[in-house]
């Protein structure tokens, strides 16, 4: 069984771009003997307030947590056969993580 990891900016089921491009195919992939995993930068709690005014400290905290999670994910990438990065690995700053992912895989 091949393992696929979808690295996404938004939680599963919340962003039209993700639903249209690949989320709708998760079940078909699983039926075709693929193990589907996903990792979103923004979790559901963060999604609930990220685009609202205010909440600056919470947004800063959740962003730090998300970057930490993505850093730790770097050490798990080798166990996947296919890695699909939707839009970006991390949303802010230069594409340092994308270069690391490319070097690792």
Which band does the percent of strand residues land in?
Answer: 15-25%
**Could you give a short account of the major beta sheet?**
3 strands, parallel
Uncertain spans: none
Radius of gyration: 14 Å
Amino- and carboxy-terminal Cα gap: 18 Å
- The structural domain count equals 1
* Sequence of secondary-structure elements: EHHEHHEH
| Count of helix runs | 5
Write a brief caption for the model:
The protein is built from five helices and three strands, in the order βααβααβα. It has 105 residues and is of the alpha/beta class. 11% of the residues are buried.
Describe this structure in words.
This protein has one domain. 41% of the residues lie in helices and 17% in strands. It contains five helices and three strands. A three-stranded parallel sheet has the order 2-1-3. The longest helix is centred in the middle third of the chain and has 18 residues. The mean pLDDT is 95.
Structural features:
5 helices, globular, 105 residues, alpha/beta, single chain
Structural topology:
Blueprint: E1 2-8, H1 16-21, H2 26-31, E2 34-40, H3 44-47, H4 56-73, E3 82-85, H5 96-104
Parallel strand pairs: 1-2, 1-3
């Amino acid at each position: 069984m091949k393992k696929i990891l979808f690295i996404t900016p938004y939680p599963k089921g919340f962003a039209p771009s993700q639903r249209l491009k690949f989320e709708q195919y998760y079940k078909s992939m699983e039926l075709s003997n693929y193990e589907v995993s996903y990792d979103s930068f923004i979790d559901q709690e963060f999604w609930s307030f990220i685009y609202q005014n205010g909440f600056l400290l919470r947004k800063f905290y959740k962003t730090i947590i998300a970057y930490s999670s993505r850093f730790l994910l770097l050490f798990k990438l080798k166990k996947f056969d296919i890695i699909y990065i939707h839009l970006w690995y991390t949303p802010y700053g230069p594409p340092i993580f994308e270069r690391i992912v490319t070097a690792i895989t």
